[in-house]
Amino acid sequence: MNYPDIDPVAISLGPLSIHWYGLMYVIGFVAAWWLGCRRASRLGLTRDDIGDLLFYCAIGVVAGGRLGYALFYGMGRLIDNPLWLFQVWDGGMSFHGGLIGVLLAALYFARKKRLAFFTLTDFIAPLVPIGLGAGRIGNFINRELPGRVTELPWGMPFPGMGPEPRHPSALYEALLEGLVLFAVLWAVSATPRQRGLISGLFLMLYGMFRFAVEFVRLPDAHIGFIAFGWVTMGMLLTLPMILAGAALIGWSRRQPVDQRLPG
């Protein structure tokens, strides 16, 4: 298969250029706002509350994602030039850093609204996968996250990396972290369940999906494999998510069913 030739710039108006990757962030936040408004009344929240929550989470995504990328993937560059941290136009965002940023934003909002932390994260978790899937499609359009060489019929040459067909790893992640994760979380969250279950499922399933795709995705060129010739930084950062998700699911099983939580 041929790699689709899609211009990374979606709209160009004179000196102003709007990239597909940026639009994917917009799609993710608009979808989260719309879905959140549908369920807001279950927690006694208003549309304005959902807007405030997404504003805090947006700050957490950008600040945490950028700082996480610098610490996990670009420490040497950060030490050489600390101002590089603020050069967001130079690329580089980390999901794991963004997740920490969102959790801190959720903690602040939960305290402000006097909500139990895991009640709020259970509310947030099903809103996230659409944005994750859209972001991976943005990576694919930007010709990022190249896969390893494959003989499978849907392999495609990656731009600038020779004629060998490669796994479209960004599309794998869009399917698993976006569509599949959303379907599972939205379905489970539509029925009464214990507090913490949805948050645990999000952590564990995302971690498992990301860990699996790392086997067909090339590691970052400036980092390579961390250990044993196959362990990547993505695997190393994702493994704690799987363990934390499993622990949270185990904890949730000892909690009473919360009738407020269905959508």
**How many structural domains in the coordinates?**
1
Q: How are helices and strands ordered from N to C? A: EEHHHHHHEEHEHHE
Largest β-sheet summary: 2 strands, antiparallel
Helix % is 55-70%
Mean pLDDT, as a whole number? 89
What structural class do you assign from the helix and strand content? mainly alpha
Number of strands: 6
Blueprint (SSEs and pairs):
Blueprint: E1 9-13, E2 16-19, H1 20-39, H2 47-73, H3 75-80, H4 95-113, H5 117-124, H6 129-141, E3 156-157, E4 165-166, H7 169-188, E5 193-194, H8 197-213, H9 233-252, E6 257-258
Antiparallel strand pairs: 1-2, 3-4, 5-6
Report on this model:
The chain is 57% helix and 6% strand. It has 263 residues and is mainly alpha-helical. It has one domain. The strands form 3 sheets. Strands 1-2 form a two-stranded antiparallel ribbon. It has a two-stranded antiparallel sheet with strand order 3-4. Helix 1 crosses helix 2. Pathway: Protein modification; lipoprotein biosynthesis (diacylglyceryl transfer).
Summarize the structure.
By secondary structure, the chain is mainly α. The chain has nine helices and six strands. A two-stranded antiparallel ribbon has the order 1-2. Strands 3-4 form a two-stranded antiparallel sheet.
Descriptive key words:
single chain, 263 residues, two-stranded antiparallel ribbon, 6 strands, globular
